[in-house]
Amino acid sequence: MTQPGAPVPDLAVTLAGLRLEHPVLNASGTFDALETARHYGPEALAPFPFSAYVPKTVTLERRDGNPPPRLTETAAGMINAVGLQNPGIEAYLDDLPLLAFVPVPVLVNIGGRRPGDYLEVLRRVEERLAAGAAGSPQVAGYELNVSCPNVGRGGLAVGTEPGETEKLTAAARALTKRLLIVKLTPNVTDVVAVARAAAEAGADALSLVNTVRALVLDPQTLTPFLGNRTGGLSGPAIKPVALRMVWEVAGALDAPIIGMGGIACGRDVLEFVACGATAVAVGAANFSGPDAPRRIVAELRAELVGRGLPDLAAVRGRALV
Amino acid sequence: MTQPGAPVPDLAVTLAGLRLEHPVLNASGTFDALETARHYGPEALAPFPFSAYVPKTVTLERRDGNPPPRLTETAAGMINAVGLQNPGIEAYLDDLPLLAFVPVPVLVNIGGRRPGDYLEVLRRVEERLAAGAAGSPQVAGYELNVSCPNVGRGGLAVGTEPGETEKLTAAARALTKRLLIVKLTPNVTDVVAVARAAAEAGADALSLVNTVRALVLDPQTLTPFLGNRTGGLSGPAIKPVALRMVWEVAGALDAPIIGMGGIACGRDVLEFVACGATAVAVGAANFSGPDAPRRIVAELRAELVGRGLPDLAAVRGRALV
Amino acid sequence: MNSTAPPPAEQTCATATSGHYRVIERRSFGPYALLTLLAPDIAALAAPGQFVMVALPGTQFRLRRPLSLHSVGGERVRLLVEPRGEGTRELVELGVADTLAVAGPLGHGFPLERVRAALLVAGGIGVAPFQFVADVLRARGVPVTATFGFRDEGQARLAGAFEIDHLWVATDDGSVGRHGTAVELAREVGAGPQASVLACGPAPLLDAVRTWASTAGLSGYASLEAHMACGSGACHGCVVPTREGYLRVCVDGPVFALDLLGSGASTDASAPGAGLAPDGAKPQAAQ
Amino acid sequence: MNSTAPPPAEQTCATATSGHYRVIERRSFGPYALLTLLAPDIAALAAPGQFVMVALPGTQFRLRRPLSLHSVGGERVRLLVEPRGEGTRELVELGVADTLAVAGPLGHGFPLERVRAALLVAGGIGVAPFQFVADVLRARGVPVTATFGFRDEGQARLAGAFEIDHLWVATDDGSVGRHGTAVELAREVGAGPQASVLACGPAPLLDAVRTWASTAGLSGYASLEAHMACGSGACHGCVVPTREGYLRVCVDGPVFALDLLGSGASTDASAPGAGLAPDGAKPQAAQ
Ligand SMILES: Cc1cc2nc3c(=O)[nH]c(=O)nc-3n(C[C@H](O)[C@H](O)[C@H](O)COP(=O)(O)OP(=O)(O)OC[C@H]3O[C@@H](n4cnc5c(N)ncnc54)[C@H](O)[C@@H]3O)c2cc1C
Ligand SMILES: Cc1cc2nc3c(=O)[nH]c(=O)nc-3n(C[C@H](O)[C@H](O)[C@H](O)COP(=O)(O)OP(=O)(O)OC[C@H]3O[C@@H](n4cnc5c(N)ncnc54)[C@H](O)[C@@H]3O)c2cc1C
Ligand SMILES: Cc1cc2nc3c(=O)[nH]c(=O)nc-3n(C[C@H](O)[C@H](O)[C@H](O)COP(=O)(O)O)c2cc1C
Ligand SMILES: Cc1cc2nc3c(=O)[nH]c(=O)nc-3n(C[C@H](O)[C@H](O)[C@H](O)COP(=O)(O)O)c2cc1C
Ligand code: FES
Ligand code: FES
User: Do C168 and C227 lie in a common domain?
Assistant: First the structure.
């Protein structure tokens, strides 16, 4: 598609001061750099397919996660209820040096059962980094996954309440100078209200969206298929909903946005950017194979070439009319 | 699939006292009995494919609807922003006798720009029916479409606020002895709270869900495709979300439910019933052709036969574990 | 409940049908495909300018695709398909013996009863309905002139799917036929002051046709496109703004009198996306 | 940023690859299909009991399907596919020259190094991995006995896809081979006290194998199924409860030691869906 002599478009973006080679991050929980290297070899990660690396959510204590089954397919999407299985922040930090080979900024995604847990995790990461752990990757900041059920509020996620979101964000803000990203849930009446609360409390950027709460039955027994009964819907099925939310938030606030939800090709990336996103994340599409992120970035480049656009700034916010 | 001698399963259901030959209604706005008869002839409606007929939303005043484009396809779904185009309640009532040939109960679906409008529409229908309009169809009740933007509350739909929903439902309840159904929007943090408000204010049944707010861009211009910019997502893409909401409401309340959202085959009907629905409605699937409802009812019957079930009661609520 | 009560008298006769039909012949014209379906009941009801709703193969949910009747002969109907997006790409790849679920014929076609001479003006895949139109007019002895405009040589392959006596072709790049547009060609070729202009094609073409016809004092009709769901008037999803307000392309059209599409027609002109035809044909432009 | 920094030493060697591979042969066994792919790089890395993730054709979003390596020869790998749902139905309809996007080989297969005699016990499509197992053991001179159980004559067609010297078949309805299950057959046929039991099949079969092996004092392994997304350890979506907590079928399995699947293994037994193997194989039972 490249015209002879046509300039190669510049995919670089700057997310709240963090320069990224291109706008495509991985969505937390859907890509693991260590496992990818282990199975598909170092070539699969050189160059690293994402411009920043978001490991899966870590919590204060170790979590075994939800009982299986944990996922299945839906029409143009998938549902999952992994339940934030993770080894807890201490083991996570002990293993952090294993990620030293990751050549892009790392964003630590944090979850918790109560607001205090998020803060304690963040504090421990800061502590460990301040101690200058040898061979650590470049931890550029945090993504607060505020979609986790909050035991203190009857299971209501922090991210469903602007007030709770504001309190947690402000407290986290006080603990770190690194990039602070709040990852919003789409399961709310008014996503702008929650986004505003996070932005006003000091979030540097907003990620949206997390998965949409959903239910799938076992076709034989007609009872809930997932061990956790309900789960989170993601993939192309939810793209129009995610796009709407990014568009609404970008239209109302100035905070930079990492858009996600159903991105499966370069055109999708462009659409999120047109709706105001600065960067994007690829989740379910990783499950189409290890080549997915590179294909998406290549398609994005081809889209810009085909449209004669020099960079993403030429498109950003175009849909905000 | 029928075993020789196996009893034919009984598909009849009773929805808040209203006996229906089978559980499959049409979703408002997706099927028009007059147009179907006009194009595909009377055979297409004899026997009538739905067990009750829900015409598209009527409002107090005539509405021209949204500027085009009004719809397009999405991954496993579709988006629409028709904007409740309708001739207004007076013309609607004048044309009601044209529906006299409809051999099933009719449920008048009402929308409005302010709560008072719904009530005025309902009052006029009652009035006209009390006057004993000759040759009218059997108007069994109402479905209040509370997803319409409410001009009095900055465009917030009545159905996003439990308090507003309760007030509107209670006022409507006072105006009619017919079946009163409230049709809920999925665009809320807590669908159970709104459902409870409607049920406690006297709704006989709840319909859920309406469409999910979404955005689709024109792939060329990267600006919103629909004339109204945002629209409502429906079809199989949203089925897991709809199913979750039906399951949540049925688990929390006793009110009968008309489940809808992405139903495309007999198995889908069974799944909604397993999640607690008494009846269901078919929307987007009507657009696969005039034979869709009959196929779905036939598949439902075959599912029951295949599972050796005598009727839907044997399945209802099975997923509520 | 008496489930066999008849609908009102005006509705006792079906104008369309729906069923599964077999592809019995397939011809290629470059990337375009001319599919012949054995569909006696559709053929029997069809009129020129009408369309069908075609379900795409496979089990995933997709809206049906509206396609014009290219021509009808005996028990056969022909569809001329341009691969635009994914759905039409699947359709052009169908082969003989594949079957398609089709509903139709639908919509109001070109009112040809009072046409004394016809000038068919079409661009791109907008040419599709005109074999049927020409066939019916020829059978009635009405003189027909067709001017078809294409982007380039590749698209001009579409002309191969037509047998019309006076068919002129133009291309935007001059590679085939005259250099220019279908409307420029039509203006040149002319068809006498009595001729009806029958047009179909992208928004700019219809725009130019409308302007030319009104200055030249010619009356005529245009076939419009819109994204459709039901294809039969139920969903109000396919409207275009006209002088009479929003009208449904699927049942009030797809063919509209040119002068219905004039300015000042929109009922909600301030809203985004609102406007007049050829804005009414915006969905097409959007592709 | 230095985007070429090497990953840690332990990860410098790929164990799997991903690419597009051509179907070069297809054989039918009743409704089942044995597909041979030309996939030299996968073949070179493969071990018995491993699987591949196969992308379904088409552009719609779908998770890849995990399929066992039925056998490997030279540059070829074979997949034996049962049409269960929509995806596998599409796979059995593939023909020669179609290509498939495949990643693999993945997972830990059967640890055959110390096997002195093997009793392969499988039911239904669970037989799939055992040609590869038998081939490798035969090459090493290890005696192999296989007992396969099927529902009925139709399913027993699967046995045709195997060349194993001592292969015994049972059917639930007695229509082919012995009347009964693979485990009953295995119990009868036996394989000596040294034999390793290698099993694959539906939950009740694995349950029965586990019970029998433990009472008979035999050690062995079972290959489990779970719905998968990444297939390579990233998503934690495919876990089964074991004595060591939740383990991922895709990387910790699919083959697990039978005694790892014993009772008391669940870490969260109170939650719905929790439980022990064969509950660990519940996704399969759910199909
Ligand atoms: C009355 C009428 C007659 C037509 N006749 C023909 C014909 O004879 N031959 C032919 O090749 N094409 C014809 N078209 C256009 C054809 O319907 C579209 O090209 C086709 O729907 C595009 O589908 P897709 O999957 O290839 O594209 P996609 O862009 O992937 O389609 C996405 C969605 O948008 C809709 N859509 C996209 N473009 C159009 C369009 N221009 N008009 C209507 N819907 C659109 C699709 O139906 C689908 O619902 C006609 C359209 C109309 C309204
Ligand atoms: C390690 C492993 C090896 C396997 N080897 C073979 C084999 O060699 N031959 C063979 O025919 N089958 C094999 N299976 C089962 C095969 O993966 C499923 O039958 C297939 O995924 C079903 O897809 P579908 O589209 O036909 O069914 P659907 O029910 O439509 O699938 C819906 C979703 O559920 C998943 N799913 C459904 N059933 C299963 C299942 N039993 N196991 C895993 N995922 C499932 C699908 O992958 C898909 O994501 C294996 C499974 C695993 C885990
Ligand atoms: C299997 C799976 C696991 C996920 N795990 C996490 C997680 O640990 N933390 C988190 O913030 N989001 C998690 N998500 C949500 C994704 O990061 C993303 O927000 C969502 O899936 C929408 O993007 P997609 O449609 O591209 O998948 C997970 C999603 C999937 C599918
Ligand atoms: C084209 C279209 C028009 C609709 N019009 C209405 C309407 O007028 N009133 C209403 O209450 N719901 C309307 N709906 C919503 C449907 O009735 C239904 O609640 C929703 O589409 C979910 O069901 P589905 O996924 O089966 O389509 C409309 C939906 C569509 C797709
Ligand atoms: S497509 Fe539904 S009214 Fe025209
Ligand atoms: S399928 Fe993702 S961890 Fe196993």
Answer: yes
Nearest to D145 by CA among D189, D115, D187: D189
Same domain, yes or no: D144 and D102: no
**What number of CA atoms fall less than 13 Å from residue B245's CA on the CB side?**
32
pLDDT single digits (tens) C200-233? 999 999 999 999 999 999 999 999 999 999 999 9
The residues, ordered by sequence, that sit 6+ positions from D270 with a Cβ below 8 Å of its Cβ are none
pLDDT at A136: 82
Q: Residue D10: which pLDDT band, with cuts at 50, 70 and 90?
A: low
Residue whose structure tokens are 């143009």? A76
Residue D282 lies in a domain: no
**Counting ligands in written order, which one lies closest to the CA of residue A77?**
3
* DSSP SS3 for A239: helix
Calculate how close chain D gets to A267, using CA atoms only, in Å: 14
Percent of residues in chain B assigned helix, strand, coil, to nearest 5: 35, 20, 40
Final residue of a structural domain among D59, D77, D106:
D106
Q: Which among A15, A79, A148, A273 is annotated as catalytic?
A: A148
Strands (E), D59-216: 65-68, 71-73, 76-81, 99-106, 118-123, 144-150, 166-171, 178-179, 196-200
pLDDT of residue D269: 33
Mean pLDDT per block of 10 residues along chain B (321 residues) reads: 67 98 98 96 93 98 97 98 97 95 97 96 96 83 93 87 97 98 98 98 98 97 97 98 98 98 98 98 97 97 97 98 89
Q: Are residues D178 and D85 in the same domain?
A: no
CATH assignment of the domain containing D248:
3.40.50.80
Ligand 1 geometric centre to CA of B277 (Å): 37
In chain C, what are the helix, strand and coil shares in percent, each to the nearest 5?
Answer: 25, 30, 45
Query: How many domains are there within chain C?
Result: 2
C253 and C124, same structural domain?
A: yes
In chain B, which residues have their Cβ closer than 8 Å to the Cβ of C237? 70-71, 80, 82
Which tens digits make up the pLDDT trace of A164-199? 999 999 999 999 999 999 999 999 999 999 999 999
Q: Looking at the domain A13-320, which fold is it?
A: TIM Barrel (3.20.20)
pLDDT band at C286 (very low <50, low <70, confident <90, very high): very low
User: Is D111 among the domain residues?
Assistant: no
C129 and C254, same structural domain? Answer: yes
CB-based contact C188:C201 (threshold 8 Å): no
Q: How far apart are CA C164 and CA C185, in angstroms?
A: 16
Q: CA-CA distance, D134 to D117, in Å (whole number)? A: 11
Ligand nearest to the CA of C236: 5
Please report whether residue D220 resides in a domain. Answer: yes
How far does the centroid of ligand 6 lie from the alpha carbon of residue A35, in Å? 10
Residue A149 and residue C115: Cα distance in Å, rounded?
A: 70
Task: State how far residue A112 is from chain D, nearest Cα, in angstroms.
Answer: 18
**Residue ranges of the domains in chain A?**
13-320
| Domain interval for residue C79 | 8-106
Locate A228 and state its tokens: 């956790």
Nearest CA to ligand 1 atom 48: B73
Q: Bridge-partner residues for A157, per DSSP?
A: A149
Q: Work out the widest C-alpha separation in chain D, in whole angstroms.
A: 67
Q: Is residue D68 part of a domain?
A: yes
CATH of the domain at D88: 2.40.30.10
Which residue has the CA at smallest separation from atom 33 of ligand 2? A73
Residues of chain A numbered 55-84 and touching chain D (CB < 8 Å): 56, 64-73, 76-78, 80, 82
Residues whose beta carbon lies within 6 Å of some atom of ligand 6: D 228-231, 233-238, 248, 250
The angle subtended at Cα B165 by Cα B164 and Cα B170, nearest 5°, is 100
Tokens, residue C87:
């759905």
Give me the interface pTM, i.e. the ipTM: 0.94
D45 in the same domain as D175: no
